[in-house]
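Dataset card, provenance and construction

Sequences and ligand SMILES were collected as paired inputs. For each pair, a complete structure of the chain with the small molecule in place was predicted and serialized as structure tokens. The example below shows a pair involving S-adenosylmethionine. Curators did not alter the output after generation; any descriptive sentences attached to a record were derived from the structure itself.
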Amino acid sequence: MVAPLPWLLTLDQESPRLPRRVFVAGCGTGAEAFAVRAALPAATVVAANFSPASIRVAQQTQRDQPAGKRIRFMTADLTRHDLANVVGRSFDQIVCHGVLSYIPKPVVALRQLAQCLSPGGRLCLGVNGTAHFSTPLRRAFPVRRLGIDPSVLPRDRSWQRLLQLQENIDGGAPQGFFSDLPDWYMGGDCFGPVLHSLDLAAWNRLFRRAGLYFRGSFGTHRALRTAMASAATALFMPGPRDTVAGGARSRASRLVSPPVARQAPGAATALG
Ligand SMILES: C[S@@+](CC[C@H](N)C(=O)[O-])C[C@H]1O[C@@H](n2cnc3c(N)ncnc32)[C@H](O)[C@@H]1O
């Protein structure tokens, strides 16, 4: 599932109980774990990543932020066969965002994550679909399985002209879309050796192989992501029709009201 946290928390209408044990799998430098900690102050939160450098950054942030104190950050590879022994079991929610698409055999990690779930627990995944922006680029350049480190490309950045060519042919992408991306980003999503951008049916086959059952999916256009990560998500949350319509009306009136409303704190929150 790809969805902002507030939306995820409303998903399970049959059992509206908030998660009590949350595992943030592939937590990077910790942003997602801090967001989970803030949203679920009573939950146990464990967060793991295979890069010790990322975990050190997360722990440093944790020292600087009292609000993030009760998160257990640890270094662990999600594909290790004894993951559940290392990070724990019986998690009723696992969030794993932007990670599986970069793991050579995602099913291996999915099997391990399944071991960490409690019966009926939920695994919320953020994964790339076929519409990922890098798909046409990776198809156009024969680097798909090789992987190129942009730092070893010609220093005069002449290789960027190739990207500009892609932007100009076949309605490839708006000008600068690829060629202005920072090197570290290019190195992963555009030229990295592994990037699974699969359709939902293909992801679903992997879930089944890992013994997981698919509950639902959520996608949003790239341009709407900022809004979806803000308080505006309330507009899209499942709920009775009259509540949703009422919420939409009051928010819409705040968003389109004259300058007085734009200065109100509520309006700023709704706009994110
Ligand atoms: C695009 S980042 C996403 C980080 C974080 N989930 C977020 O949304 O901000 C991908 C992260 O997955 C981590 N990662 C990749 N493969 C992994 C593995 N096998 N085990 C643990 N972490 C992994 C990388 O180190 C990186 O921090």
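Derived descriptions for this record:
The chain has 13 helices and five strands.
Residues 223-272 form one domain.
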